[in-house]
Every structure is written in structure tokens, then in C-alpha cells.
Amino acid sequence: MNNKRIMFLNPKLNRLLSAALLSALCLSNVNAQLSKNPNKFLGNITTRYQVDAGGGVPAYYTLWNQITPENESKWGSVEGTRGSYNWGSDTPFNYAKSHGFTYKFHALVWGSQYPNWFTSSLPVQERYNAMVKWFDEVKKHYPDLPMIDVVNEAVGMHQQGNPLMKESLGGGGKTGYDWLIKAFELAHERWPNAILIYNDFNTFQHDTDAYIELVRTLRDAGAPIDAYGCQSHDVNDISKENLSNAMTKIQNALKMPMYITELDINVQDDNQQKTQYQNIFPLMWEADYCAGVTIWGYVYGATWVDYSGLYRDGAERPAMTWLKSYMNTDAAKTAKSPFPGGKKQISLYIKPSTISASRGDTLDITVRAKMVDPDKSIDSIKLFVTRVDVKDTILLTEAPYVAKFVPTVEGKYALKAIAYSEGKAYTREGSFTAFPPRSAYGTPATLPGTIQAENYDNGGDGVTYHDNDAQNQGDASFRTSYGVDVVTGNGGKAIGYTNTDEWLEYTVDIQKTGYYYYHAVASSGTTGSGFRLSLNTDEGLVDITPNISVPQTASSDWSKYTTITGKTVIPLEEGRHIIRLTITGSSCNVDKVTFDHIQIDESLNLKITATPNPTAVGNPTELSFTTIDPEKDSTLSSIRIYVNDKLVKTLTSRPFVYSYIPDVIGTVTISALAIDKLKHESNLTSTSILVSQARSAYSNVSVPGKLEAENFDRCMDGITYHDSDSIDEGASRYRKDNEGVDIIRIGTKYGIGYTVPGEWLEYTVNFQKSGYYYVRPTVSFENDSASFRISLMDENNQEIELADVSYSYGALNEYRTLPSIYFGENINEGKQRLRVTITGGGINIDQLDIRFSVPTNVKYVTDDDYNTNGIRYNTGGMRVNGNQKGMSIIDGKKVYITE
């Protein structure tokens, strides 16, 4: 009986076999390597994109039983060209699979190494879509991953691309870390059985508190994070006591599995390196919450740090000799692990409806629980909610596991969920904080009107405001029970000492529905400061302004304020609302924001015409604007034009036309609104322009010479070519740009085929001198109606027709060079755009041989005697032999030869 039959008859065995790939990538072959502990791995990384290092160093599988690609799995390495994937990570993945040990996908999201094409010039939604596609492509290529570093190094935003990643994944949101939560949710949706890890740098000696805050917020908000990773690049000289204290502090705060993810002791002196390994490695390995250790490179000089390797010139260093000996001790072999067998057994997360609640609010506390083994189920869950004077135990027996809880006192509440399955217990911890109920500070601000920045709502940190510390660095006498930094300035109070992601909320009464102008009064003694206003709704934050950039009002002086004016991006609805002010760029003082209501006249709404569209970088696109009601055109006083939400031009005179020259690649959003003489405004109207890289010649073509049809200019459909579909039906793979143009191959010749009327191609051609030219096309025709047109394109993108080509010949797979066809226009010297347009389908085009038509200097027609030995030309200027009969040109005379 074959295997397929067995799987069909035995569903349980089928499921077990389906899990074989994942099991093969766990600790199933530990006895061959240094780690003899069945629950913990001792791993390493690739060496210069290879697994076995060579050079006399033992084979990888004889030492390590886990592998992490050093660079191969990072987004920038895999998708350097958008839509093209280089899976160099297959080498370590397949190696791990073949040797029966576990594999970790490294740095799914990292603000340091990501594709060069992923830039802030792309709209936010397009960036988000690109990141989701990246996750999808990894899932498609690696459907079963045992471990993933989901996010790498987001503490302190110290990686240059973190703000870009943050904005792309939705920003800080209510927790300050919503973008990271989103990354983990995306990963969990695709790999529910993988161990999902947050990984960061210098966790034991630097940024420890910020690291704890980040990971604890992810955990408490219910993100599907299974473990935290401590990179351990900073342990060259840390004392055993300091390391123990740091590890204990982090674990006591997080109570989650830990991985030592990137351990290196970058010491040149052999004995010093060995001593430090002896000091700290057992402390790491024997911690019962440590699930495994990955050493970051084992060959001296082969990683980004110079001296960390355990082998030098093929010989093991003393630290390696000691490590081998230690891994054979009982302490190493029997050290406990939070993941028995090195595998994840349950997805267990506690997700309260908020981690910053108000006293008296009803919270939904959801426990997400699912066993990895599909044949195991959850029997019950006990949820413990604990504060000093509050201890509640809630039994949950049916999914979805949701408990309701009302905090009756203020303070921090500890959460613990214990899930039971087949006699085993699995634990997850979390927390939330209850603050005093929200109330407006004084009378709520009314809009139209002014919000004073210092008059944020009463409540608590995480409920009505968030400050990065509990200390008021400004006027400590103002609202003494709060830690928001209030300063004196601009004749009153203002918010100061601001840091990115801090926020304040205000209860407001909106009197009139509609769009508003905002006038923000702020200051900054540096560059890059800014803030944004949003509505805090039940569905989340909804931006009502773009980022309000605060200019440097004075060098290192925050006492000089300025007013920044703009328009809300959405209409505000009448009624009571909560507005959030979020700091997007640190170090600005915010005094107040005044709102003025705008009267909208929808008959002023605009139509936007963009020509050409699509276009290329540096290629002008003419934008023209008319009202949807033509009778309103005469009432217009101005039109404001925005590119990707940034005001670029205000037109105040007719015609209302603007020449936009794009300088970025991707989808560009053009928006505009009209203002009439009564100051009424239209709604904002938007259109999109697709911008490609600048046109470039595929090959240098000079004429006289031959133009190969398949070598049309590089750019995009609508700019340098147009094809009826995006599929290359020829499938010749001649060009790697994947344009979709149908390039065929007949014998050794490439050409253009599968032609349809209306398709066209353009070529940059250098005409070496001015004058008249002729062409001899090499083509094949399928039918009598097959034809094409050759034209020049002028500076206004208008065609100047040069020649029509058609011929009655019916062998589509056999090329023929046609007789000369003369261009009907005098062509100027220099680079010109030549266009070939298909006018009748069913033609293959191989090449165009373009030649110069020699000037004849014809002065008159004569029937006198002529120089019978003179050089003869036909009337098209083409040289012919001496037997030419009929009309000829000799010595500048047009003669008719009969014999």
C-alpha cells in the first residue's frame, strides 16, 4: 500500500505527517552536536553566506543544532529588486532540515536592512501593502517556520528606518507600540505554530528599562509574542553579578521565555575570552527561562565584530575547548527550558480591551488559547486578576475565552492565565492599570474655538495622556499629580520637553459639522519637531490633520512661537468628541490650536486632468483643473494643489494649469481644492499618477545603422511602450524587466511578435546628421492586413509620421527584408524618439535598417547627352548600378534613360 493511500485512510496519521517538516526543524537530532540537552539548543549563524565554514573548521552539524542566517533572510537581501526574490536563506534552511535541527528566520521587520525602493516617497498605504506582501512571500516560500525574529531592534528608534517602518504599520496608536503589535499579528496569522520573538540590542547594559517597557507593552496588549531575545553583543566585560541582576530584572518584569540570540565575546586575547565565557555562559544556559543560545559567528574575523570567533586559522580557541567540556556536564545536559523538546506547545495570550483603563470601566479580558498539536484541546482556563486588595479567579471553560472585569480601585492589576490540557498546565502573564475616570479639565473647549495645550483631560497616563516619565520637567506647580511637562511661554502655559510618541487628549464640543482651518501656535529650538491631531474613536485613532511640522523658530531657543495654519483632512462631526495631540517629532513646545469652520460649496468641486499619466521621473505632467459645474469657473479665486498631502502650489490666475515634474517613483496622489471669491471652498478632490523611473535607452542606437525591435527604451507601459496585456506571450526571457511586451525568438533572432493594433514601442535614436532617411524593415507577416507605422515624437508628444509599412507575405515564422521605404520628413541631427505603432495585427518585427538618403543636388530635368560613366542614383537618392533604366539622377541632373 502506498503512502498516499495510508494518508487517505488515516486522518490522524495524515496530520502527523503534515507536521513532519516542523518537527524536523526542532531538536530531533541533538546527540550529534555540542548540546546534549533535549530541550535547549546551542546554535550559530552562517559564515559568509555558507553553512560549513571550511578552512579546517569542523562541519557545522558536528557543533551546533540550530542555525540563524546572518543576513540571507533580511528583507533587503531577499527583495532588493521589487517583486524579485533571492532566497539565499534556502541554504541554511535546507541544511537544518537535512540534519534534523532547528532554524530561525531572522529579522522579518528591521529598520536597518530593508529594500532601497522602500522609501518615504511611497504613500503609506502602498508601503503597508508592500510589507504585507513581504510577509506573504515568506509564508509562501516557508509555510512552516519553527522560530521567527519578527521585529529586530525597535527600542529607542535607534535604527534609521524604524520611523518609516512604524508609520507604514500604523504608527504608535493607543499603546505607543501599535505598529509592533501589528507586525506580530501579521506573523501569527501566517505562522500560528512558530515561536514569535522580539529581538533587541544591548539589553543587559543599555536601554534595559526601555526594552522592558516595549516587550511588556506588547505582552500586556495581547500581541502574539512568545519570547524575548537578548542579543548579548555587549557582554565582553560584564561581571557575572551585573549580568545576573540584569537577567533577573528583565525576567521578573516579563515572565516569558528568553533566548540569548546573538552572543559574541569580541576579545582578541584567547585567555580573556575563555574567562568571560566561563563567567557568563553557564548563567545564561542554566536559567530555566532560557530556551536556547545562538552564538553570533564562530570563525575569527568572519562576522561584523572582529575577534569573537571560536576558531582562529582552523584551530579552536581556548574558549571553544572549554565550551565543549562544559556542554558535557550534567548541569548543561539537564538545564530546564520553557519549551520542552525545543518546540512551542501552545499559543496563549491575554488581551484586555485596554491596558490603561479607568476605574469603573468594564473590561473584556480575552484569553487566546490554542494547542499546537491539533489532537490536543484546551480543557479549561483559570484567569487570575490580582491587585493588593483585589484577588479574583475566573474559570473559563468554552472558547472564546472572554471574561468581564470592572476595576473598582485604581492601580496596577496583574493578570495570569493558566491553560490546562491533558493534565498539563501552561501559563501566561500580563497586566493593566486602572486610573481615575476621565473628566475634562475645566469646561470642555468648543470648536470653532481654541484648545489650550496644557488643559488636557484629567485621568492617568495611558488614559488621557502619555508622558515618557512621571516627572514634570517644567512648571512643577501646575497640575502636580501629573507628569506632563508644562512650561511657561508665549504669555501663558504651554506643553514642553516633548518626546516622540507622547500624547495628550482633550474633550471638546464641536458646534458645527464640516472642515476646519487649524492655527497651531508652537515653537522649537531645533529641527524635525512636529505633532498631529486625531480623533480618539471606538474604532481607533482617526487623523484630522496631517503631520504639523514645527519649524525651528530660533536656534536653541523655545521662547519664540510661530503659527502654522492648515486644513483638517476630514470633516469634524457636531457633538462631543475626544481629540488627541501626538508628538511626531520631539522637542517642540505647543501653546494652543485654534479652529475656524469652513463653509463648503460642493458645486465648486474640481475635476483634475493629468497628461500624460502614467509618466516618468523628470517628465512634466500637465495638471488642469475645472469645476464640475462649468458655470462656477468664473467665480474661482484660487486653487490649492497638494502632492502626497503636501501643499505645493496655489494658483491665483487663469488658466488654472500646473506643470508637475515628479521626482519620486511610485504612485503619487494629486489633490486640489477650489476657493471662490466669497471664501467658500470645495471638497478636496484627488487623483493618482503612476510614476516610473526615468526613460533610458536599452541600447545605444545610431543611424545610419540597425535598430533591433526588441531593444525598445526602458521605462513602463504608457511611457516607452504599450502592450495590450501584461503577459509576455513570447516568453523569450530576453529582457529581465518583465515589461509584458511579447518578445519572440525565431532561430537565433529575437523580435517583437503577437502584435495587436494599437500597441507601440519607442526607441531613443541618435541621428548622426540632418537630412532624409530611408528604412529597410526585416519582418514577417501573417496576413495581408498586417502593418505598422514609423513616426517621430516631438517635444509635445505628438507623432510626426515618417512611413507606413505593409507587405503581402504570409509566413509568420519566416523573416524577409522589405524594399526601401523613404521617410517623408527631414530629420534633424541628434537624439530623437522613434515610435513604431502596430496598425494591423499579425506581424513580427525583427529590425529596422535605417540609412541616410544621399543629397542629389538636382537642378533640372534634361534630355541632353549625359555622362554615361557618372554615378547614378534613383529618385529616392539611393545609389544604383549603371544598368538602371528610367528616371535617374547623374551629376545633379535628372535624366530619363531608355537604353
From TrEMBL:
Entry's Gene Ontology BP terms: xylan catabolic process
GO MF term set: carbohydrate binding; endo-1,4-beta-xylanase activity
EC number: 3.2.1.8
Gene3D superfamilies for the chain: Galactose-binding domain-like (2.60.120.260), Glycosidases (3.20.20.80), Immunoglobulins (2.60.40.10)
Catalysed reactions, semicolon-separated: Endohydrolysis of (1->4)-beta-D-xylosidic linkages in xylans
Enzyme class: hydrolase
Protein name, as recorded: endo-1,4-beta-xylanase
